[in-house]
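Issue 218. Parser rejects a valid record. Input:
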Amino acid sequence: MKISQNNYIEFVEKKSPNTKEVWSLIKAFVVGGIICMVGQLLMEIYQDTFWMFTEVQIASAVSGTLIFIGATLTGLGFYDQLGAFAGAGSMVPITGFANSVVSPALEFKSEGMIYGLASKMFIIAGPIIVYGVIGSGLVGLVYYFIYMWG
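Output the parser choked on:
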């Protein structure tokens, strides 16, 4: 039996769950906003507590803290539930990046430290890191040439 393009599209539409796009957008916006509010709250706490550090150092500490929180929540199994509820709202902030590194590592830990944990850890985040480094390098070159000749 040969399936035509139209039959396939009809089949997929029947089997695909209906999504409530507006409600999904609202949940993503709210959860992403709450994660960013936690980051801002940490920034305020760190500025009040560690007043001798520069703003860049405090921002780095906040990023590290958010990565730690995201990795810990992933390890405990809570971040997957948050992701199922909020969708992209939980994946866009820095905690989502931590989740994308820790999830494959947990999944393949039974294969050992080298072939499982270490090799699979960057299976999702690896392309993000590669293209992030390449993109930031290109942007840096553009800024360099603009300021050099501008």
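Fixed in the parser; the record now loads. Residues 22-107 form one domain.
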